[in-house]
Description:
Distance between the termini: 51 Å
Oligomer: single chain
CATH architecture of the largest domain: Alpha/alpha barrel
CATH class of the largest domain: Mainly Alpha
Number of strands: 21
Amino acid sequence: MPQKIEDYGLIGDCETAALVGRDGSIDWLCWPAFDSDACFAALLGTHRNGRWLISPAEEVTKSSRRYWDNTLILETRFETANGVVALIDFMPPRGNASDVVRLVRGVTGKVKLQMQLVIRFGFGVDIPWVKRTEDGALLAIAGPDMTVLRTPVETRGEDLTTVANFEVSEGETIPFVLTYGPSHLPLPAPINPAQALQDTEDFWTEWCSRCTYEGDNRDLVMRSLITLKALTYGPSGGIVAAPTTSLPEKLGGMRNWDYRFCWLRDATFTLLALMNSGYTDEALAWHNWLLRAAAGWPANMQIMYGIVGQRRLLEWEADWLSGYEGAQPVRVGNAAHAQLQLDVYGELIDAFYQSRVAELQLDDGSWALGRAVLEHLLEVWDQPDHGIWERRGDRKHYVLSKVMTWVAFDRAIKGAERFGFEAPLDRWRALRDTICRALT
């Protein structure tokens, strides 16, 4: 059974992310990208749907966890009657392959530990063929997917899983490295776990050093920014709403959606948070992602896209998964991508305006896109829509949706006036006033 949501920590490499439970079990990981099939899906089922557990094999008297300062390196500390051990989990910056590194470090005494690796590709259903390589690594293959486990610990097969028992003493560090690769390519090269740890720490601390925020609760703000960065798909600049699917809005309910995509609304708010904290590179990458994703006929603009701008996010149900604490169905894909949600137009145009005020060097195409979007909004602003909560059923009129259409024209007018862009200002001002009267 999965743990409480608040008991999971996040690690990632800015292309995908894993959830690590307080008990030392990785219960969720989609590989090689946020929107790929999960190979660890215990979060939405049982351990038989895939997980990677490393924990003491003796009674834990106390446990604690923390992130290393200004990093996405997660350390879970277990105390037993015989000693203390630290489990250090991280994903190094993506190189030629994607790795999950787990370091078991003896703090005091000598502690007995256990390892259980249950790889289940295809969202917890596809059992791989497992064999040893010539250099002793453990290779698992199912269809297009491949993982390689490298560790000095002796492992064995047991009930279609890989298990191990070992000990760690004070001052000793035992590495486990699991690497993903396409099955038709050669095996990914091994990495040096100690160097990977240093590279990961350097990557995050350098990124954090660029933060310009110096206000209250800076540590909490920095932790939030690190999380936002971790949800950014580095190759494209797209920002996912979450790395998970089907965690319920209410336990036992049916509103269990796939959030591993880029909502214009969420990405816009994230953009402003990053931009206001000095992260202009991420802001520009998002802007360029948006221009590519939304390119085309404005009437076809969607509320969300895939991580590289995919448009058809077809929804289906993984009926073999029991769901988080029984919340079914478990959905993959999101049918709401075809909904009309008028508020996103306002958030989009406001983001463009705020970016220009912040003096980001936006592509000239952003004003042309904005104008085309507004021409379409002129025709549809008074239509019913599905609203911010994406209700499935008949469209209705929502106050927020109408307010944000007002925002769209208000920010466009201000942008044209402030930056000297050519625009049909009289027509926009007239409609802005019309929307205002309709709201009062």
